[in-house]
Structures are given as structure tokens and as C-alpha cells.
Amino acid sequence: MSPATRRAPSLETAAAWLLALLWLSPLLYAFWAAFHPVEYATRFDPLAPLTLANFAKAWTYAPFPRHFLNTVMLVTMILAAQLVLCTLAGYAFARFEFAGRDIAFGLVLVQLLIMPEVLIVENYRIMSRLGLVDTLLGIGLPYMASAFGIFLLRQTFKTVPRELEDAARVEGCGFLGVLWRVYVPLARPTYLAYGLVSVSYHWNNFLWPLIVTNSVNTRPLTVGLAIFGAPESGVDWGVISAGTLMAVAPLLVAFLLFQRQFMQSFMQAGIK
Amino acid sequence: MRHVYGWLLLTPAALLLVGFTHFPAAATLFDSLFSTGTVVRPSRFVALGNYAALADDPIFWQVLGNNLWFALGTIPTSMAIAMLMAIWVNDRLPARALVRMAYFTPTVLPMIAVANLWLFFYTPQIGLLDQLNAWLLGAPSHNWLGDPATVLACTMVMVVWKEAGFFMIFYLAALQSLPPELEEAAKMEGSSRWYFFRRVTFPLLMPTTLFVLVNATINSFKLVDHLFILTKGGPDNASSLLLYYIYQVAFSFFDTAYASTLTVILLLLLAGLALVQFQLVERRVHYR
Q: CA of B126: which chain A residue's CA is closest?
């Protein structure tokens, strides 16, 4: 990335490659197991016959299409709600002076620490009172007002020059018009970064969805995968690998295509 | 007027935050002071009774200890590997993009999938680890995940693999913000690569190290998904962690009051760590 870095000595280059290979090996192994008959699971014969049977079996052993649909709906619903709620709240914190603002902001930041998965006991109780157990809305609700999103958008909106807002005001825009026409378009990179982190997080999230769901119609991929991959289920290794690869494929492909954006977004999410 | 608008804009998010973060956190504290109600015996106020039970609960101390070992075992190792990865990837390495991708890939995978992949490494006899062991050392088969002595270490190796690439990106960003003149000067002085790392790079990365350390510690209390696949916390709670124990108490033993009590402890631990984090930010020890 930076041009001034020096060339690594060849011994270190070899070590770096070896570590890279080591780091990829669990995934490479999963590919091996998934695409070969079970007799070859631990026999690395380059001439071993390739097969798609494991994928076909995985697809029918577990209701994968339904899990995929649930995950896609869940991720979309959470992201849509987060974008709306965090935009409004971020705008309020960035550009409005109101009584109790700083205290309110402090209270928002509390959620950075106490993520919903820490409060599983009480949140489950709340969901059962609301009748939302085993619904996608029940999985998504605790995550919709995201402190991280509010914080990120507040920081971004604060960098927008006031003059732009004033100009739009003169043109006759109201508060929401200014937000929609000036702030939101300028914050596009932030939305992209936030969107990537949110989608990856909820595509991969497990504990809370496990607790709130109890039927095929609501279980997302991770929960379906956990039931499917449990040793008690007696499914053979190639099929588990195939199922696991199917579940991670969309995110993995997206990552391979947009590596740089992914790494930058994850970094922003970590730094806060 | 701006007061009203400000609050109006904030209201939808505020309602959800209060409803699913602040209220449940307060309710957790409240519930920890009562006993779990059953059909025959309704819930009653027990003051600090649950906390007394907690102090006498050997499993609680065991999972807390596990959490400590888990943090000690995974965080320094993954950070050291992350630093090495970042230094390598920051160099003009052939196929650098590919190497960087290889290091980072585990970060985008769900913990459940990762555990599925690693389960096969640890399976006795047919697992890769056992086969490798037999082939290289001629060692007999070992039930890696079934032995209390090895199970926690097995989960730690997997977590190091999962986390190192994530920490790498922070070190990479820090390395890229270091002035290139330092390296040039070191070259002119003829200092070795190791000396340069020890005396220049490592100290300059210290703020990042502290920052990653605190975040990783907070994170280590939330990493429990793998237990559902690999061990279910066993054998004999040897691999269980605090959050997993909370899950078991609440949803397998249905003792919600005691689960709330355990949650209070978790919240206190997280709050303590947040205080440390806040101190670090205050002292401006991290970049940006």
C-alpha cells in the first residue's frame, strides 16, 4: 500500500506464505471434503473423483432454502430499520441543540458495551410478553437501534459544512428535506461501511437467534447449520462441509470481490 | 423549536434502545434480588441470596476461571500473530493481496461454520489432528475435545485462528501511518530488521496494542458460539464460559433469577473494562 516499505527478505516471504497457507487450510480442507466422496475425506489423492453429491444431500437433509430465505429477510429488515433509525438519531445528535442531548448520547453509547446478546435472559422475557418469540421481528428488534450506527452517522454528519445546509434551507428545504438532500448523499461511504458490517454481523449472528427461534420458518442459516452439523445428527463429514460452505458462500464471495471495502469497514467498526 | 425536532428525530431509536438495552439491564439487576418462581412456590424477595449462592457455586468459579484462561490464552497469541501478519503484509511481499486475504478470511466466517470446520480436526481417530499425530509421532488416538485437560486449549487454538486476521487490520493501519523516514534512517544506520522492530516499530505500535487488547478482552466474554458445536461447555464444564453458563442456567435449567445474577456479574465485568477503555481514550493513546 505505501510505496516506501522495503522488500521482505526471502526467508520471511516463505514464512508469510506458509502462514497464509496454514490460515487457509481449514477452508481448503472443507472444499476438499465437500467435493469428494466420503472415502477420500482424509485421503488426499489428487486423482480422487469429484462429486456434487454432498451438496445435493446437504440441500435436502436440512431445509436450507428456507434458512437462506430467513437470513436474507432478517438481514434486510435489520439493515433497513437501522439505516432509518440511525440516520434520524445521528442527525439529531449532530445538528440539533436540545435539552439532555449529551446525557442521551451517553446513554446511547452504553449499547456499544452491553450488546443484546449479553441480555438474553431479560430480552427473551420481553419478547415472550410481546408475543414475538419465534418471529423474525423478535430476532431483529433488539439490534435495530444500533449505537454504533448512530455514533458513526453522527460523526459523519458533523463534518458536513453548515453552508450546504443553509443553502438548501434558502432553497426552501425543511429539516427532513435537508437531511435527505444534503446529509444522506454526502454520507454514502459511511452507509456502505456500516452496511457491510451490519450484514456480515447479522448473517453470522447465532446466540440470540438460537434463543428466540424454535421452528424452521424463522431459523436463520447459522441456527440451521448448528442443528445440521451437530454430531448427534449423524450426517457424514462431506455433507457437513458442503452445508457449511453453502451457508458461508454468499458472504465469502462478497468478501473476495470487495476485500478492501470489507477490511476498511471492519476496521472502522472496531475503532468506533 | 429545535428542541422538539431534536427529540422527535431521536424518539424511534431511543424507544428501542431503552426497551432492549436499558430496561432489560435494570430488570436484570432487579430480578437478581428475587428467587425464581415456580408453580408451587412463587417468586419472592431474597435480597442478596442469589449472590451468596453464586459465591458457593463451584461451576461459576470454574467458568470464570475458564474465561480468564481463555482470554490469557487467546488474546496475547492472536495479537502477536496479528502484528507479525501486519508487518509481513505491509512489506512488498510477492502476492501480497492474496496473503492478506488468506489472513483475513476467517474473520468473515460465522463462528458456527468455523466450529463445524474445526470439529473434524479434533475428532478422535478419523480427525486430522489424530491422523497427523499418529503419522508423525506414532502417538495413540486422543479424544481432544473429550479430555478436560485439552478441550479449552483446542477451542483457544481455533479462536486464535479466527481473530488474528481481524486484529491484523488495526496493526496494518497503524503501520501505514508511521513516517517512512524512520525506516530509511534505520537503513542508513545499518540496523537489523529485528533491532528496528524491537526499538522502533514495536514501541510505536503500543497505542494500537493497548486499544486492541481492551477490545479483545471485552470480546472474549461474548465469544461462545463455538461451544454449541464443539463441546456444549463440557466435559464437566471444562470448556464452558460465563455467557454460555448463563445460557444454560436460563434456557436449560430454567433458573432465570440465578441467570440474572450471573448476568449482573458479566455486566460488572464489562463495565469495568469499559472504564479502562475510557481511561485509555482520555489519555489519547490511540490513533485517530
A: A42
- The CA–CA distances, whole Å, from A266 to A120, A192, A197 equal 25, 11, 6
Q: What's the CA dihedral at B272, A208, A196, B177 to 10 degrees?
A: 20
CA distances (Å), origin A231, targets A267, B110, B187, B234? 35, 18, 56, 14
Please say if the pLDDT value at position B286 is more than 50: no
- Selected for mutation to probe chain B from A68, A84, A118 (highest B CB count within 10 Å) is A118
Closest CB from A13, A122, A248 relative to B109:
A248
Rounded mean pLDDT of chain A?
Answer: 86
Q: By residue range, what is the domain housing residue A150?
A: 64-269
Q: pLDDT tens for residues A30-52?
A: 888 888 887 777 677 777 778 88
Angstrom distance (rounded) from CA B42 to CA B259? 17
Q: How many domains does chain A have?
A: 1
Is residue B165 predicted with pLDDT exceeding 60? yes
A78 in any annotated domain: yes
Residue B81's contacts (CB-CB under 8 Å, 6 or more residues apart) are: A19, B160, B164
ipTM here: 0.86
Chain A positions touching B246 (Cβ under 8 A) are 120-121
The answer to whether residue A29 is domain-embedded is: no
pLDDT at A267: 78
- Please answer yes or no on whether B105 and A27 come within 8 Å at the CB atom: yes
* Mutation for A interface: B5, B77, B117, most A CBs within 10 A: B117
Q: Which amino acid, residue A161?
A: P
A188 touches B at CB < 8 Å: no
Provide the CATH number for the domain around residue A207.
Answer: 1.10.3720.10
Verify whether the Cβ–Cβ distance A108 to B17 is below 8 Å: yes
Among B225, B52, B196, which Cα is nearest to A8's? B196
Residue A40 lies in a domain: no
CB contact under 8 A, B2 and A98: yes
pTM above 0.90, yes or no: no
What is B60-287's CATH superfamily? Answer: MetI-like (1.10.3720.10)
- Best residue of A97, A121, A207 to probe chain B, by most B CBs closer than 10 Å: A121
Q: Are the beta carbons of A115 and B173 separated by less than 8 Å?
A: no
What average pLDDT score do residues B194-207 get? Answer: 86
Residue A200 forms part of a structural domain: yes
| Listed range (A142-151, A211-220, A226-235, B204-213) with the worst mean pLDDT | A226-235
Interface check for A109 against chain B (CB to CB < 8 A): the answer is: no
* A209 → chain B, closest CA residue: B225
How many other C-beta atoms lie within 10 A of the C-beta of residue A201?
A: 18
